[in-house]
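Section 5.1 Outputs to date
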Amino acid sequence: MATQEQAVSAELEQVTKEKLMGDLRVVVADAEELLKATANQTGERIVAARAKAEESLKAAKIRLAEAQAVVVEKTKVAAKATDDYVRANPWKAVGIGTAVGFVLGLLISRR
């Protein structure tokens, strides 16, 4: 039971990380668009703000790539562990799948 709770916790963490990465991608795209839109603007403050934004954007891209690599690696590990468990315990996996399907069916039929 504890491993199942850990799996659910890991899955929720995965979803949260994916949402964060998606949000970060949107911020990066918006920042790039803003930098392009202000390319012709002049003035000391604009130049300084653009330089700072470009540095932040580069750092965000690096962090996004690193986070994505971590998520991909963890997903591969989780998929391998799931595959190993199902191969070692096929009837338990069928039972769990059936139970989850039954519960989901009950939840859907109530609506």
